[in-house]
Amino acid sequence: MSRRFLALHLPDLATARLRRAEPDLPAGPLATWEASGSRRLLVAVDAAAAAIGLAPGQALADAQAIAPDLLLRPADPLGDARALHGLALWARRYTPLAATDPPEGLILDITGCDHLLGGEAALLGDALDRLQHNGLAVQGAIAGAAATAAALARARADAPIAVSGIEAALAAPLPLGPALRLDAAMTEALARLGLRRVGDLLDQPRGPLARRFGKALLDRLDAVTGRRPQAIQPVQPPPELSEMLDLLEPLITRPAIEAALDRLLAGLCAKLRLAGLGARRLALLAWRVDGAVQEVAIGTGQPNRTPAHLKRLFAEGLGRLEPDLGFERMALEARATDRMETGAQSSLGLGVLQDRAALAELLDRLGQRARVQRVAPVASHWPERSVAALDPQAVPPPPPPGWSHPGQPVLRLRRPKLLEVVALLPDAPPASLRWQGRSQRVLAAEGPLRLEPEWWRARATAERRDAYRVELPCGTRLLVCRGGASGWRLHGHLP
Fold first, then answer.
1. For the segment 104-155, what is each residue's pLDDT rounded down to a tens digit?
2. What is the model's pLDDT at position 452?
3. Hey, what's the torsion of the CAs at 393, 398, 400, 401, to 10 degrees?
4. Greater model confidence, 397 or 314
5. DSSP H helical ranges for 2-76
6. What would the DSSP string read from start to end of 108-141?
7. Which one of 89, 187, 274, 452 counts the least CB within 10 Å of its CB?
């Protein structure tokens, strides 16, 4: 499946944020500015200011000469970045891979997600409608490369949806400034050479361009034309609850790290208890003195806020930490929580409350080392279809009639294993089979039991089987099936 990216361009994000923060602002063109050396330049303009010829990068004095009634506010890059980050978190409604494209763009990796809203056109239309309904001017595009989609969103207002593989042809007619996000000085320098569109650059030798304008220009050109994939950094939702610990002395030893974890767990579990919550996913973050950040994450099947149990789940992960010169800060984040009014696990369908809690904690500990699943019975006469895998904390449905009959296997294989079997006649029961690396004689065989394909869901090539219950000299009892061209297979272990 080829990658697909949706890009959104919000040209008046900064001014729209100002309108919301200052609802009493009078109507009229609005812009933000900042000092650049001895000059004062426009940073962002709203639609009204753009309509009268104002644009980012323009000198403030020129802008005021064009529009004497222009409303001006100092630029707030940090506030704009926070607003863009908040929009990226909002965009996770469409895909978990939503990233910011500063200063005023979003990039969403929608590969495999568009069908949830009825296709790419419906997804793009929904995103544009929701943002416009909230008073934001927005342009969007979808393409097979992130940089191509972003360039189309900045340069075209018709919300194009482009097929993958033709990125260079799509980018060729786009103007250089918005397509490559070049500053006014470089755009003007290229225009003096007759280079105004992406296609004009593609026709030029790369060596002279790199020597005159720098390698960064070619890197942006390669990204927009799909020659070099652009990595995106998806935003992460903030933790629901967290606890931070700044350390006076860097921690190096395992006992010191565990002591810090004890303090973090005590504080976080107290917050969880006050909120009536239990943790489902926790992450321990450790900042090293050289700036590196390391992370250990755990998960629980049931909401939990018991410090001792959660510390046991972290035990193996702590061994992967590399303190080097030591950790100067540690934090514990609850990245997923559930309601937990009584403080005890439920829904396991076993025994008394204490037994259910003990089982939940045991499954949590096993889940840190291996994949743990619970077996669910399924109504089917084919052995491999008579079981399904469930989450270990889920309650299995009641078994269908006959599923737990004494003649049925106690261990059913969802993927039958091929067996070497010798039968005296083509339709005779097994006489011997190879088991645990050596040939063993079959002491007793019961069967055959004819198993017909499940016509309501079986493939057209499915073949009938003959099932036998066999017993070996070592006492092992097996359920084996013969299925024509597929040969003999092991389907389960009998009691």
1. 899 999 998 888 889 999 999 999 999 999 888 899 999 999 999 999 999 9
2. 82
3. 140
4. 314
5. 13-21, 47-51, 60-66
6. EE-TTTGGGGTSHHHHHHHHHHHHHHTT---EEE
7. 274
Only one residue has tokens 């079981």, namely 387
Task: Give CA separation, 158 vs 12, 151, 215, 226, in Å.
Answer: 18, 13, 31, 21
What is the DSSP-derived secondary structure letter of residue 57?
A: T
Name every residue whose Cβ is closer than 8 Å to that of residue 77 and which is 6 or more positions away in sequence: 34, 103
- Alpha-carbon distance of 388 to 396, in angstroms, equals 10
Q: What is the pLDDT of residue 478?
A: 92
Q: Using an 8 Å Cβ cutoff, are 280 and 303 in contact?
A: yes
Q: What is the CA radius of gyration of the chain?
A: 32
Find, among 7, 29, 34, the residue nearest to 19 by Cα: 29
Alpha-carbon distances, residue 456 vs 194, 220, 358, 389, 416 (angstroms): 68, 55, 42, 22, 21
Predicted pLDDT at 58: 86
> Whole-structure pTM over 0.70, yes or no?
no
Question: Nearest to residue 10, comparing CAs of 115, 106, 148, 107?
Answer: 106
Residue 163: DSSP 8-state: P
Residue with tokens 């309650």: 395
CA 314 vs. chain centroid, Å, equals 23
Query: Which sign does the torsion angle of CA 203, 208, 212, 218 carry?
Result: positive
Buried-state track 224-239, b at ≥16 Cβ within 10 A, e below 16: bbbeeebebebbeeeb
More confident residue, 327 or 464: 327
* pLDDT at residue number 184: 81
Instruction: Give dist(CA 298, CA 316) in Å, integer.
Output: 10
In this structure, the chain runs to a length of 495
End-to-end CA distance of the chain: 46
Of the pLDDT bands very low, low, confident and very high (cuts 50, 70, 90), residue 1 is low
Structure tokens at 46: 């709203």
pLDDT of residue 43: 86
Report the C-alpha gap between 16 and 14 in whole angstroms: 6
CA-CA distance, 245 to 264, in Å (whole number)?
7
**pLDDT tens digits, 147-201:** 999 999 999 999 999 999 899 999 999 999 889 988 888 888 999 989 999 999 9
Are the C-beta atoms of residues 429 and 442 closer than 8 Å to each other? yes
Q: What is the largest CA-CA distance in the chain?
A: 103
- Nearest Cα residue to 457 out of 394, 381, 397: 381
